[in-house]
Structure to design on (228 residues):
């Protein structure tokens, strides 16, 4: 079965510091991976995705993610965190050998402290 | 504005009382999906639809029904709700069957079954 893991339930970072939210995957075939963000009382918003090509993917709001095939990881990063980045972040994806199966990680709550 | 809408946003009901959560998208998307979000579990797919009159089970379909009579609408039906269906529900849509296309999410429906 395909799976996406987010090993940290909670990440705390000071405003202005770099942030990393971790994601690892286990899929069949070539992976495609997404990051979504959920603000309180809102739906999920798309941040970025990796399908193929450059391992460094740039997305919305200054976020980027690095695809690492050897470590089966797709960590979300931002050079300088803002208090407004505080939210719940979901990694999601699947593999091109597995049809319609698309799985979400459990989510990581990011708190940026002023 | 391109969007996915859900109604109601909040619903409290009692065990066994049939209910329907509506979902509508205005992007002419072929693919629509329902998810439930539970703490620590991320989002799990309930049902999806590849197009009008084409629906299929996701990972957690028990206790739910769906229909897709029109392209824009994809209602979720709970014929006899039970307390274990208390959850946050999201409808999503994407352009077509390709899982690498970005999904767009509605604002969510918080359901409590007493």
């Amino acid at each position: 079965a395909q799976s996406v893991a987010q090993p940290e339930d909670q990440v705390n970072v000071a405003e202005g510091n770099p942030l990393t939210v971790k994601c690892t995957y286990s899929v069949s075939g070539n992976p495609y991976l997404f990051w979504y963000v959920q603000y309180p009382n809102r739906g999920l918003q798309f941040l970025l995705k990796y399908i193929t090509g450059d391992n460094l993917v740039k997305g919305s709001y200054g976020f980027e993610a690095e695809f690492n095939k050897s470590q089966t990881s797709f960590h979300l990063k931002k050079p300088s965190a803002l208090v407004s980045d505080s939210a719940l972040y979901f990694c999601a994806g699947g593999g091109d050998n597995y049809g319609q199966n698309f799985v979400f990680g459990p989510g990581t709550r990011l708190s940026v402290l002023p | 504005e391109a969007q996915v809408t859900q109604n109601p946003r909040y619903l409290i009901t009692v065990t066994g009382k049939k209910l329907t959560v509506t979902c509508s998208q205005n992007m002419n998307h072929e693919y629509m999906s329902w998810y439930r979000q539970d703490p620590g579990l991320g989002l799990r797919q309930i049902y999806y639809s590849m197009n009008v009159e084409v629906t299929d089970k996701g990972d957690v379909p028990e206790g739910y029904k769906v229909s897709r009579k029109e392209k824009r609408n994809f209602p979720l039906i709970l014929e006899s709700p039970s307390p274990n269906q208390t959850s946050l529900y999201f409808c999503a849509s994407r352009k077509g069957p390709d899982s690498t296309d970005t999904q767009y999410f509605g604002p969510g429906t918080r359901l409590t079954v007493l």
